[in-house]
Amino acid sequence: MEDYHKPDQQTVQALRNIANRLRINSIKATTAVGNGHPTSCCSVAEIMSVLFFHTMKYRPDDHKNPNNDRFILSKGHAAPVLYSVWVEIGFLKESELMSMCQVDSTLEGHPTPKQQFVDVATGSLGQGLGVACGMAYTAKYFDKSSYRVYCLLGDGEMSEGAVWEAMAFASYYQLDNLLAILDINRLGQSDPAPLQHHVEKYQRRCEAFGWHAIIVDGHSVEELCKAMSQPRHQPTAIIAKTIKGKGIPVAEDKMGWHGKVLSKDMAESVMRDIQSRILNSNKRMYPASPIEDAPPVSLRNVRMPSAPNYKPGEKIATCKAYGMAVAKLGRYNERVVAMDVDTKNFTCSEIFKNEHPNRFIECYSAEQNMVSVATGCAARELNIVFASGLATFFTRAYDQLRMAAISDSNINLCGSHCGLSDGEDGPAHMGLEDMAIFRAIPTATIFYPSDAVSTEKAVELAANTKGVCYIRTTRPETAIIYNSNEDFHVGQAKVVCQNKEDQVTVIGAGMTLHEALAAAEQLKKERIHIRVIDPFTIKPLDAKTIIDHVRSTRGRVITVEDHYYEGGLGEAVCSAIVNEPGFTFQRLAVAHVPRSGKMSDLFKIYGIDRDSIAQLVRKMLSSSANAK
Amino acid sequence: QCHIHFGILPKENKKCHFLVCSYPSTLKGYHKPDEKTLQALKDIANKLRIHSIKETCASNSGHPTSCCSAAELMSVLFFHTMRYKANDPRNPSNDRFILSKGHAAPILYAAWAEAGFIKESELLNLRKIDSDLEGHPTPKLAFVDVATGSLGQGLGAACGMAYTGKYFDKASYRVYCMLGDGECSEGSVWEAMAFASYYKLDNLVAILDVNRLGQSEAAPLQHNMDTYKERCKAFGFNTYVVDGHDVEELCKALWHAEQTKGKPTAIVAKTFKGKGLKGIEDQDNWHGKPMPKDRAEELINDLLSQIQSPNKPLHPQLPNEDVALADLTPIRLLTAPEYKIGDKMSTRKAYGVALKKMGDASPRVVAMDGDTKNSTFSDIFKKAHPDRFIECFIAEQNMVSVAIGCATRDRTVSFASTFAAFFARAYDHIRMAAISQSNVNLVGSHCGVSIGEDGPSQMALEDLAMFRAIPTCTVFYPSDGVSTERAVELAANTKGICFIRTSRPDTAVIYDAGEKFEVGKAKVVRQSDKDQVTIIGAGVTLHEALAAHDQLAKEGVNIRVIDPFTIKPLDASTIVANARATGGKVITVEDHYKEGGLGEAVLSALGEEPGIVVHRLAVSRVPRSGKPQELLDMFGISAKSIVAAVRRTFAN
């Protein structure tokens, strides 16, 4: 502790005063709007004071300065204390704080990036530390800069497994620039947290996960200052024993006060009481300035330098084309990074790893954490992130994906091995609900490329598209159907097969597009012509192209998809064409939990193969003939 | 409490030794198995290896090396430690076994072949389209309680079974769960670990097969046994590190696990991936690869040569028969709902009341929550039936796994609740629950923008999309107290996964206490001969539709209002008939994103009906904080928006 300079008494008192002002503002604001978690704010008042006015280095007038230390409030329900900090700094007006949570305020119930000082939304517990890992990894290995990352967690959220995924990740990658503060205030929402005030158990768990763990009194600014100044060679956890509702006598360490606001009268008397503890001190506290050593980064105009290098008819799996495309994109932009969950030999992201080992992060079997790390790496537009895994295992991270949308994140995800085409591995590994969940993410763009050329274009477009991008890839090899110079756009479908005599439009994607093409060949022999459309993006869907072509095939349309009936391509098309008069619409999709078997057998059994398509086309034509 | 330290010598010496061999209080009762038994266990391990190689060669896919690391573990568990009836795998008194590392399925099938339950010849049909021996275990097989194959989920289900064994069945069966080292990176494993020690599940044993290698590279902790040990101990497990290929050590450690009271046990087994396969053992790039055809025979012969007494049969010990057969009689509410039309209450509160009444009706009903019981109102159940409530704390993945575990073998009818948004956290587990043929009931409160000020992170706007895409799922979306109570009753008796979506705001009771409800049967809540549009809403938006109805009625415009009650299955015929009766004009209104919810369900139902026009009102972007009513207006799903949509419909 040689280099530790104990803060002078004036500073200590000033930090205590700030802590109490944060309490007052948190109470005042929550009482004013009749909503929020004042007791969860009061337990962290000293922690926030020390962090923002003693430990962290940042420019308070330039929130997005790349050299600033980062702060993530993982216990997002303590938002009022974070807003109070920014009132204390002078960035927010007190009056703004007093109208938080209102429909016209950008200070929401839980932090969102509508505020400049928030990088990622929190409020779904246990997600902050994974994001912090992504930021710390970026600082240490990509930016190679001295800014640090601070993450404040509650004790309740320590029950979330995602926290321990992040803990393991941080120590594995020796993120010594990461500091987690655990606010052990004993009480959860409806019960005490399982470990109550057993701070030594928290310490043991953190140490077992490879962290340096220090127990402190979370209401002692001296202890906090000291602990936060310790030199680090590994990620550090400050385990702060605190009292929920500290400063509010009726609520201190009491059950039944989670998420409850004080009545006006009670608030006034409590605030008077806290105010009386603010001792005269003229010392103003200013955060220290950061070291300016972060490199300039631009993510604009990330383009492939050359057209795809595939020949029509050549056979290649779209999952492999994904790996090659991301590797190619990475060749021309230093800020393209990739990660995976120990499936890189399946998703083919190992092609990227082999070419750019320093820009690949192995996240091991921890999908939630991978998505959080991706979100952290992509924050402040510092990296173009491609995170891959088997399509179905993104279900594991659906809460993180939901929050990524609220965070305005631009992460790109690739799910391979979608659908029945995974074959013998059986239903546990088949992604049959991934389109449903990604479609229900408001900021998502869903690419479902059907050959290697369009996969490469999808990767390039995803890199340049805002919001969450999802690319669905397939395991079996399929033929190249597009020319290398074919132009692709988000929301623009391709008509793959067309003829003046077409009688039915069939829409498929991935494997089922190839099945549709095979059905077209089959039907041609019977002089039945069908039009085949590749939607390319499922969201947004090219409603106009679809409607135009369905009209020219007399309103007859069939969708066929390697996905459950609900929420996928079929329902997307249904939504697009619903109010078109005179359309006849039939869908082929997987209706039951499938089983192990050869892909071709499974496609037959679940009715999404070429024969099923051909049969449905014939049926549709004969019933419309009967109708005449 | 005994302190036992097993130590590992450097890697080149693959044999493990006890550093301190003192088992102060418990060693006394331990009888080392005789040499013949030990040899027989070794022989079985090698037979299991041979089966695994043959199975995966026959299917030309699968994970033989992941089987070989676990061969001794499986042999000792199935032929020495576990008590079960080999000819009756689902017997409620049997010890339970969960293969969390589901990709080692071939060795599980091999163990049941050795136990005599499946024919050896059947093993060669692994992964074939007409065989129930799937790539990863599913309950199509009587000896599989829950499907595995999505890693990190087995231990949570095992916790549910162990909790049931200890606290509900109060029986002597024990629960064994085998995990791989790769899956120890999954947070859900540590959620389960924390749960097991918190609830002192001393009838639970987690066996960690630490074979060092993952799928695409080594697992992060490689063979760092001390770190595994420290983590397990820090999470409250009685922990032994053993040589996973030494049957004697395994027998001893598993025996000690059984003597340990008040704590679950972790057996951290140092093993080698591909153990026993020359040139393949502990080598990279063998994950998920069958043995090359030209090498299989040699490898098998090598294993055969180590088998000393091929015909020495070992029989599993039989269980104590101290568990009653599952009671499968339907559970009915003892009294009708006690609400009057016009009473105001939230459906989330009605859920708590209903669940408590179901608990009154049957001791099999159990409930759990993720530290939100005062918000979901499952605390009403807890107060009445504290012994049947499990607080799972803030670990939604584990809660769903525990609920699934509790519901296996029909031991309980389980209801698990939290905010609807947070089931997103457990979607992989819910997906697997469908593959597991689970009958678990999940209840999500605080759906939609109508929760107000807490903001988007707490609002479920994708839950209907999620649950609709679960093939075995029934989705209830009740709109008042009476229908909520009936939804809970129906869910308890409906096979498959049931999801009940409840809302935060107080709304009026609209049904008579005697009203009958059925799965897949909608209610026409308002109708007249002159209705010009059909409005379909649910929960809060049904009440907005009713308000719109009243407002429009004053202007002389009549609209029909339908409550679908279940979103899946959706009552297509009622909807189609009413849509036709109102000139083919339909408006759906939902407190959910536009994708995958009520609107798309209705579109799917009407898909092939000509001449119907559907206008959908739903939330179309990430919402924000605000007062509930303001948000309903802002996102276009309030009475005002419905009235405007009805007027637009006429304008066109």
TrEMBL record, chain A:
Could you confirm whether the keyword Glycosyltransferase appears in this record? no
Catalytic activity from the UniProt record: D-sedoheptulose 7-phosphate + D-glyceraldehyde 3-phosphate = aldehydo-D-ribose 5-phosphate + D-xylulose 5-phosphate
Signal peptide stretch:
none
Please provide one cellular component term from the Gene Ontology annotations of this protein.
endoplasmic reticulum membrane
Q: Which GO terms describe its biological process?
A: pentose-phosphate shunt, non-oxidative branch
Which Pfam families does the UniProt record give? Transket_pyr (PF02779), Transketolase_C (PF02780), Transketolase_N (PF00456)
| Cofactor(s) needed by this chain | thiamine diphosphate; Mn(2+); Co(2+); Ca(2+)
Q: What class of enzyme is it?
A: transferase
Q: Does the keyword Calcium apply?
A: yes
Which EC number(s) does the record attach to this protein? 2.2.1.1
| One MF term in the entry's GO annotations | metal ion binding
Give every Transketolase-like pyrimidine-binding domain span.
Answer: 316-480
Keywords, sorted A to Z: Acetylation, Calcium, Isopeptide bond, Magnesium, Metal-binding, Phosphoprotein, Thiamine pyrophosphate, Transferase, Ubl conjugation
Q: SUPFAM superfamilies attached here?
A: Thiamin diphosphate-binding fold (THDP-binding), TK C-terminal domain-like
Enumerate the CDD domains for this protein.
TPP_PYR_DXS_TK_like (cd07033), TPP_TK (cd02012)
Q: Which family does it belong to?
A: Belongs to the transketolase family.
Q: How does it assemble?
A: Homodimer.
PANTHER family named among the record's database cross-references: TRANSKETOLASE
Give the function comment from the record: Catalyzes the transfer of a two-carbon ketol group from a ketose donor to an aldose acceptor, via a covalent intermediate with the cofactor thiamine pyrophosphate.
Listed name of the protein: Transketolase
Organism equals Sinocyclocheilus rhinocerous
Taxonomy-wise, where does this protein's organism fall, top ranks first? Eukaryota, Metazoa, Chordata, Craniata, Vertebrata
Q: Which gene encodes it?
A: tkta
Automatic annotation (TrEMBL), chain B:
State the Pfam families in the record: Transket_pyr (PF02779), Transketolase_C (PF02780), Transketolase_N (PF00456)
Q: Name one GO molecular function term.
A: metal ion binding
Supply the EC number(s): 2.2.1.1
InterPro entries (UniProt xref): THDP-binding, Transketo_C/PFOR_II, Transketolase-like, Transketolase-like_Pyr-bd, Transketolase_BS, Transketolase_C, Transketolase_CS, Transketolase_N
Listed CDD domains: TPP_PYR_DXS_TK_like, TPP_TK
| Class of this enzyme | transferase
Cofactor(s) recorded for this entry are: Ca(2+); Mn(2+); Mg(2+); Co(2+)
Q: Name one GO cellular component term.
A: cytoplasm
Q: Which UniProt keywords apply?
A: Calcium, Magnesium, Metal-binding, Thiamine pyrophosphate, Transferase
Superkingdom of the source species: Eukaryota
Domain Transketolase-like pyrimidine-binding per the UniProt entry, residue ranges = 345-509
Alphabetically, which GO biological process terms does the record hold?
A: glyceraldehyde-3-phosphate metabolic process
Q: State the similarity comment.
A: Belongs to the transketolase family.
Q: How does it assemble?
A: Homodimer.
Protein name according to UniProt: Transketolase
**UniProt organism field:** Sinocyclocheilus rhinocerous
Q: Which gene encodes it?
A: tktb
